[in-house]
Amino acid sequence: xxxxxxxxxxxxxxxxxxxxxxxxxxxxxxxxxxxxxxxxxxxxxxxxxxxxxxxxxxxxxxxxxxxxxxxxxxxxxxxxxxxxxxxxxxxxxxxxxxxxxxxxxxxxxxxxxxxxxxxxxxxxxxxxxxxxxxxxxxxxxxxxxxxxxxxxxxxxxxxxxxxxxxxxxxxxxxxxxxxxxxxxxxxxxxxxxxxxxxxxxxxxxxxxxxxxxxxxxxxxxxxxxxxxxxxxxxxxxxxxxxxxxxxxxxxxxxxxxxxxxxxxxxxxxxxxxxxxxxxxx
Length: 281
Fold this sequence. Notes:
This protein is mainly alpha-helical. The protein is built from eleven helices and no strands. The protein has one domain (6-280): Mitochondrial carrier domain (Mitochondrial carrier fold). The longest helix has 34 residues, at 89-122.
């Protein structure tokens, strides 16, 4: 995107990121509901079973576009800075890791409140996202919307440090093999593989984050650390509890990564190739 000015480049990344976030979250929402209920302290069936698989969609859709847009604007911006003048593979990977980490921290400011409302709605499928939002504000204030923010960061950062450098490495390897840049569908496959591996490794962190977000007001878990939550789950259910929702999480993140990053690259390519940005920015 070197031929564009900074405003147009920012606009392309912003638009592509927002569309990618919405596409991935809406398509894969039932799998996310399944994972959340499997990880709930109440157990799968008491948390809703297979009823209301789209409960909480409104809160997720509200946050997915701005959250994804913030992520990609931060990621691409920092990546361009850290990649300047870097020649060794290790330096480039380090730049991608730094960009992914900071992008996750920035996007979680929007994502976490929506995630809190979404997950509570998923386990109370007979109520709306708006009702859960009002109830959270009434009982806990604005701080309640950020319950689990630290644990989310501690889950997302290790995940991002694995997924995005792997995605970039897989794309570069594929491009080198075929002697040209990767197509969006190839980028999607790379993202799916990278996401699946990263999701499997970080499942215990996801379980702990879910339990903190779903914890009742005033309970030890509600204000606990990720380590405390991990110990609690391990004491209650052992290793199997720490990997609750393992298969749905891998499926969710693999498909989500493929849709998310594949859609991002596709929309960005279309906007650049057809000069769409000249009419929008």
